[in-house]
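for the writeup, i need someone to sanity check this before i put it in the appendix. the sequnce is what the collaborator sent (i think, or maybe the updated version? ugh). structure was predicted straight from it, no edits. if anything looks off just tell me and ill rerun, i have time this weekend
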Amino acid sequence: MASFKKCLRLLWSLRDLIILIGTPIVLCPLLVNGRSEAACAYVMLLVSVYWIAEVLPLTITALLPLFLFPIVGVMSAADTADAYTGDSIYFVFGSISISVTMVKWNLHKRIAYLTLLLMGMTAERILLAFMLVAFFLSMWMLDVATAIIMMPIAIAVAEQLNKENTEKGNTNTSKKVSYVIANPDAKTEGETVPPENFVSIKDGAEVEPQYDKPDRICKSFLLGIAYSSSMGGAATLVGTNHVIYMKEYVDETYNTHVLSFTSWMAVAVPCQLICIFIGWLWLQWLFLDLSMRCSKCCSDKDTAKQTRMNSYIRKELEALGPVRWAEGSVIVLFVFALAVWFTADPVIFTGWMSLDKNEYVSITTASICLPILLFILPADPFEAYRKFKKDVRKKFEWETLMDIGTMHTKYPWMVVFLFLGCVFSLGRSAKVSGLSSWLADQLIDLESLDPWLIVLIFTSAIALLCECLGNTSVVIIALPILSDLAHDMEVNPMYFIAPVVLSASFAFMLPVASGPNIVAYSYKKLHVKDMAKTGLLMNIICIFIVNVSTHTLCVWVFDIYTYPEWAPKRIMNTTTPIVTNTTVL
């Protein structure tokens, strides 16, 4: 038995090497028959396993399709490399640059603290404030980045709240009745004390009251930010990888601008906000004793405690100093970016993209303007002028809103470039190799079902698969399948695509399910059972809300009950031979 345990420990210590070498060997049968669909599946499964297990650096794993697709005969090297320079990658770079600039000038902290002051100083209101701020920020920067910059702030506030609770517990301890137990088997006599107010009873021991565990507030904050970051990332076209891939896939497959910033947000934002509100109530119920407060009609309010928390938040806000020129400039550029994105190709009026008859200009053209301006505009023009005025013989220099050093240290943008390029190449290979068509043929029996039932099945299945495989990998495989299925059924492709992509952001149960979950779990304040218990009901409720939104908001925005002109027409296969007119001699 001891040798068996020793063997298991050895295997566990060598797990990275075993996965690195064993995975391509185990998957080798897919390459035996020589079919391009199987070869494509080989590369996709290999990359997915390496992503999940993290046996290689993310950038190196992202380069594997460039090496493997030409070798196994799925795509040429030129076609594979072309996916790494997709239009959507540079569109995301504009969003990344503005978000990194916010972090550089601590604008995200100012937004968070001002929101806390606005919402109130109770734990449940602070939780809602953090969730709303995380939701808003993740709409414009990647969800993982939002979780990384917001969770340290939330932990600091949670520690301050726990400190207040501890002080309150210490002052109330003297008011409690002390009990001495003469016989451990005998019941406690005297005044009844609720069990949660004492920890243990020993011979001759004094009963000490136990208050809410300090980690409960911190757990609610971490999970709330993780959930909001994931849902906010799916609310825009630049917030998370699988939505970015959806945009690229729809544009490339259908050569249409049906999926614009405005149209997607009209569907995603209301849906995700409802999910966030329900998540806020659910986190309160689990961690902040919502049921107890509701039974008391919220009458127990500690004004002194709220005043001390208010003073703490104001002190942190004052430490940031007054609003600087750089922060104002970033806000102006951010508003400018929003205006450009919203007016590019809106639903309700003609956008500026339609003015270019040659279609040379796209939304990426406007987005790439942001980093250019950030590297040109001064952070403080008055300070630069004062320095130059002191010695006019020196070269006139100024600190810009963004510098290349900060861009490298604050955000690994090259990793994002390679990762998105890998995602796009995997998606393109599924279509080129015929893997998506083959998988769609295996689901031919689903065509007999009503579309609303197919949506319910796929949204549930996608949310479940994302818990283990990651949302980006699952969406890469699912979108081509759903498109082919929609074409065969002559159903609007957005009927299937929109809800499935939204449901991919509802991976709440496991640490590996999403980037924000990984960040939350890394602080070692959450157990897997905490995430599983909290995320299960969240998944069920959010899937229900997505299905309702599909048959309300999507009907208005995408007209999902009508088969669009931009979608390919169904080609009926027939086995009837073609007979030509012949003359029999």
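The two ends are 88 Å apart (CA to CA). The chain has 28 helices and no strands.
thx in advance!!
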